[in-house]
Amino acid sequence: MSFPQDFRLISYLSTLEHAVRFPLSSSYPESMNIDTLFELAGIEHRQPFMQAMLDYPPLRGTPELLEAIAGTYDNVDTGQIISFAGADEAIYASFHALLDTGDHAIVITPNYQSLESVPLSRCDVTGVALEAENGWALDVEKVRAALRPNTKVLVINFPHNPTGALISHQQLDELVSMCRERGVWIFSDEVYRLTEFNPADRLPQLADIYERGISLNVTSKAYGLPGLRIGWVACQDHAWLLKLERMKQYLSICNSIPGEMLTTLALNARAPILDRVMQRSRANLQSLTDFLARYPQTFELTLPKAGVLAFARYKGAEGAEAFATRLVEETGVMVIPSVTYASELTLVAEDFLRIGFGRANLEEALGVFDRWLDQRSFK
C-alpha cells in the first residue's frame, strides 16, 4: 500500500471542526488546567516546575518520568520503558522497529487507523473483525486461524476503540499462550486501561505478563491530559528496545521538559485524577444511554465496558455519515461516523456513530441534540 494514506478520522475532524460547538467527537475525558493538576498532585510541586530549566530531557525520558511510568506496572522497571511524543509516534516507531518485508501481522478491526496502516506499509497484514452482531466480542479461534509461519506480531486494543469492548482474562491468556508457542509478539494498545466500569474486567498489561509483549499507553485517554503529548512503550526485551530507541533518534529525539514534568506529577497523582474521570464517565454514560433510549427507532447501542466512547448503530435511511454531517452543520454537535474507521483488511459497517461522553457539558450537548431530533420527528 502507498504510505502515508489519508488519516480518515483526522481528516473528518479537520474538515468540519469550524462548525463544532459540542465535541461529542472527543475520544478523551474532560481535561483540566495546570492549577487543578497542581491541586491534585500537591501545591508544593508548583515552584520546582516554574524554576525548571528548559533543556532537552534524556531520549527515553527523565529519570523521574520513567520512575512514575514504571509505577503503573507490576513487573516493568525504568530500563524497560521509552517515552514518546504521544501515542502515534510510539506506534510508528514500534512497527518500524518490529516489522520487515516478509513478515506478517494480525490486526483487530475496527481500529485506530495507524495500528493498521503502519503495519500495512511494512508487510502483509490480516484483519480479524469484531462484529456488532456478536456484541463486539473477539473470537480467539479466528486469531488462531489467521496465524502463518511468518506471523511476527498480533496487534490488539482492549479496552477497544471505538466500541469500549473488552476480552476476558481467559481470552488474553489464550492469546499469550498461542503467541508464546510460536514466538509471536503482541503489541497491545492499552490507552483506555483504568477506565473499566467494572474493575474486575481490568486486564493485566502485556509488558507485565509476556516477554514479547509491547504495552502502549499515553496521558490523553484515561487521564484526560492530551495536551501533555506524552506517550510511552514498555517491553521486557532489551534488544528490541534498543532498536526502538534508534527509531526515536530519527523522530522527536526527546519530549519537552514541561510535558515530562507535568506527566510525572499526573502519574504520581493518578488515583484522584482517575476518580475524577470515572465519576463523570459513569454519570455521563447513564445520561447518554437514557438519551439514546428515547429514540429506539433511530439508535441501538451495545454498552461499552470501558472508556468514554459509545459506538451506536444509526438506523436512519440517509446513513450515518450524512446524519453526522448534517447534525454538526446545523447544531454544532459533532459525532463521528464509522466510515472514518474503514479498514483495508475487513468490512467495517458504515451505519455506526462514535459518540464521546467524557466531557463536562454532555447534558447541554444532548439537550441541543434532543431538540434537533424532535424538530425532525425522529421519535
TrEMBL record:
Gene3D superfamilies from the entry? Answer: Aspartate Aminotransferase, domain 1, Type I PLP-dependent aspartate aminotransferase-like (Major domain)
Stretches assigned to the Aminotransferase class I/classII large domain: 51-365
The organism's superkingdom is given as Bacteria
Note the SUPFAM superfamilies from the entry.
PLP-dependent transferases (SSF53383)
Keyword Transferase: yes or no?
yes
Keywords assigned by UniProt? Aminotransferase, Transferase
Q: List the GO molecular function terms.
A: pyridoxal phosphate binding; transaminase activity
Full protein name: Pyridoxal phosphate-dependent aminotransferase
Provenance organism: Ewingella americana
